[in-house]
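Note to self: keep these together.
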Amino acid sequence: NLIPNPTSSPIEPKLEIWSVSVAGGAPVRLAEGDKPKASPSDDRVVFEKGRELWVVPADGSKPPARLFYARGKSESAEWSPDGSRLAFVSARGDYSFIAIYAGDSVPLTYLAPGTSLDGSPRWSPDASRLAFVRQPGRGGAETPPLQLRPRPWSIWVADVATATGKEVWKSPETLRGSTPGTLGGPNLNWGADGRLLFVTELDGWPHLYSMAASGGAPSLLTPGNFMVEFVAVAPDRRSVIYNANTGSDPDDGERRHLYRVPIDRATPTAITSGSGIEWAPAVTGDGSTLAYIASDAGTPGLPRVQPLAGGPARTLNQGALPSDFPASRLVVPQHVTFKAPDGATIHGQLFKAAGGESRRPAIVFVHGGPPRQMLLGWHYMFYYTNSYAMNQYLASLGYVVLSVNYRLGIGYGREFQNPPRGGARGTQEYLDVLAGGKYLQSRPDVDPARIGIWGGSYGGFLGAMALARNSDVFAAGVDFHGVHDRVSLPSENLEIAARVGDGIGEHDLEESVEAAWTSSPSKWAARWRSPVLLIHGDDDRNVRVEQTVDLVQRLRKYGVSFEEMIIPDDIHDFLLHRNWVRADSATAAFFEKTLKAKRAATR
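Structure:
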């Protein structure tokens, strides 16, 4: 739980909460802590510190104080509409409760407590009820690790006065009925007239549904083959603003546009369209104005506002971009598709600048996550904004760059995101990356002997797989903080279950370990021939730097040419801009040596 120290300061850094008045003035330090949430009246801020909830005046006029004592870890605080009470999740390990704090003189109230994992508490507008998501508690008979299993969930509504609750909706115990694996998960919210809003994937896509809080069949609000992602309820709670990868243009599946839909019928209307990307909608308190972030192929995300009832949009803070920002010189990526060896259709974005060699070197880019989708413009996540910028830079240097949206990613339906042999079950998604390399080799404007690959995190893992298994296709690569050994020791529970036959057998365990090892670049190190640049922050909390330390020893053993850049004290998503610049500059220089120089040497 130590705070990252990317500047290598001899003074231990702190994670702090600050406030600043919207009207202006100097910022005020409030406390050490995380995840602040202001009260409805903006006079107090609740936040998490350690395993407890604390509170502090928003103006910093008093020191912070622990709000209450409770067992477990108190988290996910939600103020009641009038700010008099606080709902929160009391995490107890294998199960959790929804609880209410109403003051020091009142005992904590636990709503319909049981052995389940309860979360996402949401107050009704009149504060008389709380809706929440319930999932089964941990434990039970083990499932064979290679088997995809449903993750059922349900929606409960509890009466605040009596602390009693009832299940008002339950997902089917099918793969499509599982908890959504997209932004915000179920996105549970209250609408007007006692209705509940939520996201589920019953038809194979993350869609908005609406139902009466008393129960009944939910109504689909957003039909179609697309995903709903960012969700915001209008202040009057009678409509929802959301973004989705759909629209009138055939390529809108690779973008995001904003829509508005009433809470009681499937009549969505488009708010934005065109070649841009829009996300993070928010409606002003009076319900008159919609604010959101927008980007396109040339311009990174900037805030934009427009009347919710209709009218022209206006971009704010245009001056945030430097005067010499090269928006007009950036390429417009092209949406391309190609086939994986097993017949799956894979989508990607192709970056190619005008001019240059008739048969150019090319590079495959592989995103991380893996539940991500790269787009036809500047991305809405900061990590992938950097990736998009890097792909543009490589294109400006004369490379043809292909960004591959492989299976496990979002945007193409639940089955695409959850292939039966994906991840450590067999790395089915690697077929898509290999197909991307072969697609580039087939293009008349690409030199098939000069294909490189780069990616970060899960993209670093897949890039390492490409170099290890197919050095015949990928001539060089750059691996940002990738996973290289996917074998982890089976838990004691799994081993016991395998021995006694409680749900799985020993062959299931052996098969899963073998699949994980086969899904590891380290397994294929003896076949690795292409040079690689390895980049890793040594305080990485997502992918431990030991993954790269171990791989280096294997590459040495087999005489593979490698370079390394270890960045002391920085984390997975480099916190310092200069570290991104160093890593990206080193990436470009490495490909200059290994791909462009290769052509010069063979003339």
